[in-house]
């Protein structure tokens, strides 16, 4: 037959002349009055609770009798099978900090002790398994070690009513998440086989910089539109660990995040890459993502007789990159031709006729920084060259 559960003593808050009453107080006896549901009392004030008694509230009276006193008191007994009311919601979320700290949130925030909120006074943690360097305080707050990296951490523990081995819940799995201050977002770029940029999945589809879609939030808030700002290289993020093995020979991702085509005859297909951004102030807070470049055949491609690499004896452009002014230099005097400048989207920005010259000046001062295509159409040749305005 199962043993009855033992409750804390009902004498714990009873006084006589300002002193706590104990079980050896002048031959004290305790009497329960009313329908007690087979609950009995011991001399020390603890109650024997039948193991099959259903959870619920049970109210009855008791009296204390000895040669000095004969007084009564009402007791309400709250019997429950589990301490917890929300076992699936043991979650603590914090924002990354480099220093050691104690969380404001607690693993007891969604726990009820019967009809009241669980606190360190009525609930006790035991059998705690925590990640290295972490620990749980009696009130359910968490001690986080210095430089704990963003990520998900799991704790396991047991919760029991304080001073009792009954009503415990065992092997609780609690989730602790350190959110990141930076978020790298997957990139998808479209180019045609001539290396002309066609668009991206970015908020600004005209951008061919891998950082354009990435985010920064000092308080790790990324859910609301105004809770984050864009990643700014050298301002709030750093860029590193660019893996662009599949891009070799066709594209190069520059240190500033710009995707730069390397030739004008790129096979169709997908070219994958990965990279990492980190918080500029807290370099341990990092986020890694992947991306790809989809090279497709399209009518936007440049003319079919484009040279993959211009003849060094025919034409050169300097300085490249340049802030504003580019000089197109020809080895021989050009009798007649045309120079066009295209944006990364393939739009013609301007077109100039040339004749009887061996040099032409290109002024991009009124255009934003970026990569542009210069198309030089001669009587017997068409040459495409890329220039970068920075």
Walk me through the topology:
Elements: E1 5-6, E2 15-16, E3 19-20, E4 29-33, E5 40-41, E6 47-49, E7 56-65, E8 70-79, E9 91-95, E10 101-102, E11 112-113, E12 116-117, E13 123-129, E14 135-136, E15 142-144, E16 151-161, E17 169-179, E18 182-183, E19 187-192, E20 197-200, E21 215-216, E22 229-230, E23 237-243, E24 251-253, E25 259-261, E26 269-279, E27 286-296, E28 315-318, E29 325-334, E30 337-342, E31 348-354, E32 357-363, E33 370-378, E34 382-389
Parallel strand pairs: 9-17, 19-27
Antiparallel strand pairs: 1-6, 2-3, 4-7, 5-6, 7-8, 10-15, 11-12, 13-16, 14-15, 16-17, 18-21, 19-20, 21-22, 23-26, 24-25, 26-27, 28-29, 29-32, 30-31, 30-33, 33-34
Index terms:
about 400 residues, mainly beta, Immunoglobulin-like, 4 domains
Brief write-up:
The protein has about 400 residues and is mainly beta. It has strands at about 5, 15, 20, 30-35, 40, 45-50, 55-65, 70-80, 90-95, 100, 110-115, 115, 125-130, 135, 140-145, 150-160, 170-180, 180-185, 185-190, 195-200, 215, 230, 235-245, 250-255, 260, 270-280, 285-295, 315-320, 325-335, 335-340, 350-355, 355-365, 370-380, 380-390. Strand 24 and strand 25 (about 260) form a beta hairpin.
